[in-house]
């Protein structure tokens, strides 16, 4: 597989801020994500705008699509998204509808792993031809100051073995990257860590670590 | 409990259409919902606009909030929503964060029942003081031409007994209303059935049925 990519999550509540952040980071990230907060704040114009301003980047629209999949997917792909997110809690018919639209646009679906999803669920996504999922560090772990747990790592491995590439997010720092060796990591996603004043240095440190293990 | 209300779900992909539909139906609905599709199409301006134009109606913002709950909730309540939706798949910490914001605004949270939610999950929502959930007719049932199933009705009853009022949606027609007798139904939600040319007559027929059973 290709090396894991770096992704900026834009979650401002206004487009101007998002445009500024994207402008500042575009030279050192591969993927620009219109986060759910930004998408609900500004609507599809956020996707249109960032697609136009960053024609060479991968654009993600993080809708966590739960229902009305065909319409939401079409809207986001037409606005310029390359990838869209779909909730693990969506009915399989919704996930399938999103995949069909993605295929029409040569786009991709990423499953957002929330709720009580099972490995049977994951197999049904794989059976639909879905190749990506997004793994979030447990909030309880994060709040308790615990880093990524063995259970997180083992679940990511199982998903990798099933053929799913995982985008990994949740306070990602360069010192964590080694934990994910051997996992099919599609992207590492960060927000403030890449958007702040030390963002470029952080990106370089992340890539140094990535190059050690992939 | 009060009688079930009538709710219009606005799911157009443009604000002008939504404004027109809301204008046409406001006299015979109690609740105006900015559907997820409209919210992602137009952003919070859709909530602002409909709140301003319909100051006396209950306004729902259907975000199916899955993460970043505090920020999404604040955004929607500030834009004028009375109720917001939160996904059953969200981490309990997210649901709790949304509830706290709702309390600050004298607003309410509705849990969108998607994915593998359990009665233990439902109890944890009740423990947080959440009093509403939205029950969707099974899509498989709908596609197979099957009406509401005994399992649907019995799950709604259990939720009622736990203290949750259910908004009910999925091809609702007046002939179905009797099925829900004895359930704490908060609203019946419809889209095209209320928005089309016979919407007013449909609303009257729904209310006639509602008055028989509540």
Automatic annotation (TrEMBL), chains A, B:
Organism expressing this protein natively: Photobacterium frigidiphilum
Protein name: 3-dehydro-L-gulonate-6-phosphate decarboxylase UlaD
UniProt EC number: 4.1.1.85
GO biological process: 'de novo' pyrimidine nucleobase biosynthetic process; L-ascorbic acid catabolic process
Keywords recorded for this protein, A-Z: Carbohydrate metabolism, Lyase
SMART domains: OMPdecase
CDD domains membership: KGPDC_HPS (cd04726)
Superkingdom of the source species: Bacteria
Family annotation (InterPro entries): Aldolase_TIM, HPS/KGPDC, OMPdeCOase_dom, RibuloseP-bd_barrel
Family annotation (Pfam families): OMPdecase (PF00215)
Keyword Lyase on entry: yes
Gene from which the chain derives: ulaD
GO terms of molecular function: 3-dehydro-L-gulonate-6-phosphate decarboxylase activity; orotidine-5'-phosphate decarboxylase activity
Domain Orotidine 5'-phosphate decarboxylase span(s) in chain numbering: 5-206
Taxonomic placement: Bacteria, Pseudomonadati, Pseudomonadota, Gammaproteobacteria, Vibrionales
Keyword Lyase on entry: yes
């Amino acid at each position: 597989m290709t090396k894991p990519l770096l992704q900026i999550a834009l979650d401002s509540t206004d487009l101007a801020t998002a445009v500024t952040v994207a402008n500042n980071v575009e030279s050192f990230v591969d993927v620009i994500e219109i986060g759910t907060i930004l998408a609900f704040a500004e609507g599809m114009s956020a996707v249109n705008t960032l697609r136009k301003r960053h024609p060479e980047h991968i654009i993600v629209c993080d809708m966590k699509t739960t229902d009305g999949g065909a319409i939401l997917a079409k809207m986001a792909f037409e606005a310029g998204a390359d990838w869209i997110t779909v909730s693990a809690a969506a009915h399989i018919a919704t996930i399938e509808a999103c995949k069909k639209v993605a295929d029409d646009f040569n786009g991709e679906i990423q499953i957002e792993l929330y709720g009580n999803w099972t490995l049977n669920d994951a197999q049904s996504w794989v059976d639909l031809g879905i190749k990506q999922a997004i793994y979030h560090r447990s909030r309880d772990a994060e709040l308790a100051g615990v880093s990524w747990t063995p259970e997180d790592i083992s679940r990511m491995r199982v998903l990798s073995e099933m053929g799913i590439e995982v985008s990994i997010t949740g306070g990602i720092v360069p010192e964590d990257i080694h934990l994910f060796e051997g996992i099919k990591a599609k992207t590492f996603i960060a927000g403030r860590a890449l958007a702040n004043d030390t963002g470029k240095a952080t990106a370089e440190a992340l890539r140094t670590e990535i190059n050690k293990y992939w």
